[in-house]
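tool_call predict_complex ligand=FE2/S2 (inorganic) cluster
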Amino acid sequence: MPEAKPETPAVGPKRFEPRIVAFFCNWCTYLAADLAGTSRMKYAPNMRVIRTMCSGRVDPQFVLDAFAHGADGVLIGGCHPGDCHYQEGNYKALRRVHLLKRLLREMGIEEERFRLEWISAAEADRLKTAVNDMVEKVRALGPLRLETTAEFFPEEVKVA
Amino acid sequence: MTDKPKVAFYWCASCGGCEEAVVDLAEGVLNVVAAVDIAFWPVALDFKRRDVEAMADGALLASFVNGAIRTTEQEEMAHLLRHKSQVLVAFGSCAQLGGIPGLANLSSRDEIFQTVYKEAPSTVNPEGALPKSLHRDNGDCVSLPGFYETVRALNQVVDVDYYIPGCPPTPKIIQQAVEALLSGKAPEKGSVLAPDRALCDECPRKDTRPEKLTLTAFKRPQEILIDAEKCLLAQGVVCLGPATRGGCEALCTRGNMPCTGCFGPTSRVRDFGAKALSATASIIDSNDEKQIDQILDTLPDPVGLFYRYSLPASLLRRKKLPEQPATKGCAPKAG
Ligand code: SF4
Ligand code: SF4
Ligand code: FES
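tool_result ok
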């Protein structure tokens, strides 16, 4: 991840560019992203994709870790219901995501920052729309700013 | 002076239960007392901070610190004991993971002060006075420790060698830990001194836990008549046994109450709440969004449920604070 975290507000000459971490399943959404690339589709460049074998592999710890390390939003992409390569993985993801959303709400993290989308290998368009829409919504919310620890406790020892 | 190894016990943001647990060692405590020289233990013995300050660095073999870190004084004591001790042990859930006091990370300092000093029905405070670090009156000056915005676990403040889990740790766990430390057969630095397996392994109900468990509603213990033999999860009560480290010998499930996770995670898990959430979500018996939400409505407070003992040590550490200038932040309020 080359550039430093953009800190500019949504208004003004340099607008805030949200950082979105995306977990895409190998068999559908990742291929959709591939297709979007080979078809030279243009969409917001704010997303960093991490490929997982299945949306059911996305441990809630991955999502929290992303937020804790500077993500302004997290997007999970998987196969449509019934199409999961491992039969049930995306249903597993669905149940977890619903519970995790409730937990994030209680932690003061806005709903728009965390999203689950079903996107098949052929749906490059759907991917484009989802990413653009999420980037705009998170941009409107502004930076998440959870990385305040160092500021508050400069002497704090590093924990893994 | 004897040449028995010197140890210290200290408490930070804690309820006193961990101190009680040491006393609860009963005859066991005598073995400990016979083997060591207790050089500092504010709850029971009349030593002062200056006595610790006067010690040489590393003069204490071990310090057992319970409680989370909320104030500047607790932070100072953690540093002081770290310098004076060869081994620093986080004793109990609050020191290990932030514990129950760590749930205060769902509120800001201002909210806490408002509630405690102004709004609570039992509070009488007509001037609306709030604690300050420094107060001058007639040339006199009184000071109080600063109150941080965020509660921390001990290892977020100083380097910690070992962890004794539990809320509070059980006599057996304490005794085994102390023996391991005194015998010099201490395990690898950073270890949690309890078995590294899930609580279900030692639960007497485990044979009634179905291979594939699914539920259409979660129940709170007071809502049902609990069967004394059957796995609590199978009865619909959220039990965190599958995500929690064993070692307590299933105290709660033996007493007809679900495990709430006080022994924290096993070594393979970074964030206890996320793991417990995952385990709980996996037993929801539905693939339909609406239905899933209905089932989840029976879990009213996910943070309190999954992070009851570990919010400060979690990946997110606290509820997001409302936007405020960075400089104000957590620094303790000066008077
Ligand atoms: S889920 Fe709870 S009651 Fe069931 S076996 Fe595990 S610890 Fe025991
Ligand atoms: S059953 Fe769970 S909550 Fe109860 S003492 Fe054991 S680890 Fe702690
Ligand atoms: S393989 Fe795509 S969601 Fe499971």
